Amino acid sequence: MDQGSATMRSMAQITFLEVDAEDQKSVRERFPEAQVFDRVLQGKALVDACKDAGVVSCFIHTSFTKEILMKLPQLRLLCTRSVGSDHIDAETCKKQGITVCNVPDYGSHVIAEHVFALLLSTLRHVTEADAKVEGGAFDYHGLRGIALRGKTLGIVGTGKIGRRVAEIAHGFGMKIVAVDQCRTLEIIDRFGVQYVSPDALLMQSDIITLHVPDTKETEHMIDAAAFKKMKAGAILVNTARGSLIDSRALLGALKTGKIAYALLDVLEHEQNFTENKELIAHPKVVTTPHIAFYADDSMKNMFSDSFLSIEQWMAGETPEHVVKPLNVVCDLSGIRKP
Ligand code: NAD
What is the pLDDT of residues 99-119, one digit of tens each? Predict the structure, then answer.
């Protein structure tokens, strides 16, 4: 990079999109000249907000389609503060000479902790107990909990988040079985994880937690046939993607009592309340609105990685967090390569 280009880059207009009130101070301190928007912008409003920007920092709810990108000829660096970049048309970015950066790991522990927040609050009836006490009844009857120690946890996907879940579950004294296309030796040794077949996981687990990405192979991986194989009274946790579970089959399994609880941070067709109404309203379903990622550490890391990419690019360097293909590589015996 010659000095002239670095100087041009350092003068580029910066636009930050989807910045919550809590994060605006850190953005303004680091980039006082930047334009900052808190809302999700679409269509003309998005083009207007970004039309003079050489650099844009966004999040997952803003779609940079071909149509939008073609109207942003000044844009050179597009940083999404997320792991995934499906909301950005990579092909058009390549053609337009736009560098795309992401945040490869903003804190998998935050999502893993949410799995246990859902489990502990539900299995120990925290919300009902609080309501009961507030209603004047300081009485434990009807609030008998379910302990985690000694229960079998089935982890589907032992990547960054699944590994953290195994670490926490080991601390609780749970037995852990897992499936993944690649086995990770470290978690077998450290947390006693036993890799088993998908059917064995479904049959043995008291609690099943999903941590695989949304792909053609994983879509509806938990379907009516899978529910049939599960233990009666199994508990299902999904903090990965809604598409992994066939929602109608889940509703059926809840109605028969085959599933004792479904704890869901993600839903199929997340924005369609009407479609999910019956599932959400079911007394044995606890839903959070895709908040597993949303905590102090993770938000701080999302912004600091995005700031780093912008600063590296402005200094004329190639940012270290340019989006790379997420290929998990196993050796011939199915062990994850480092
Ligand atoms: P990761 O890439 O580190 O791990 C995914 C694991 O799934 C890998 O070990 C991979 O080998 C395995 N896998 C992929 N396809 C498989 C298949 N067909 N069969 C068996 N194993 C398979 O990903 P991660 O960071 O741990 O994220 C896991 C999931 O969590 C993703 O779906 C991600 O979108 C979701 N997520 C949700 C939130 C939230 O706020 N709810 C936040 C971050 C990530």
Answer: 999 999 999 999 999 999 999
Residues in Cβ contact with 76 at an 8 Å cutoff, skipping those fewer than 6 apart: 9, 12, 54, 55, 97, 98, 99, 313
Query: Atom of ligand 1 at shortest distance to CA of 326?
Result: 2
Cα of 157 vs centre of ligand 1, distance in Å, is 6
Q: How high is the pLDDT of residue 4?
A: 57
Write out the two tokens for 37.
């928007």
The per-residue pLDDT for 326 is 67
Quickly list DSSP for 125-176: THHHHHHHHHTT----TT------TT-EEEEE--SHHHHHHHHHHHHTT-EE
Annotation says 87 is catalytic:
no
- Whether 317 sits among the annotated catalytic residues: the reply is no
Is ligand 1 within 6 A of the CB of residue 122?
A: no
Each residue's pLDDT tens digit, 224-254: 999 999 999 999 999 999 999 999 999 999 9
Structure tokens at 326: 């997420």
Q: Which of 81, 161, 270 gets mutated to test ligand 1 (max ligand atoms within 8 A of its CB)? A: 161
Who contacts 34 (Cβ-Cβ below 8 Å, separation ≥6)?
14, 15, 16, 27, 28
Q: Which regions of the chain are under pLDDT 50?
A: none
Domains (ranges, CATH) in the chain? 3-106+296-314 (3.40.50.720), 108-292 (3.40.50.720)
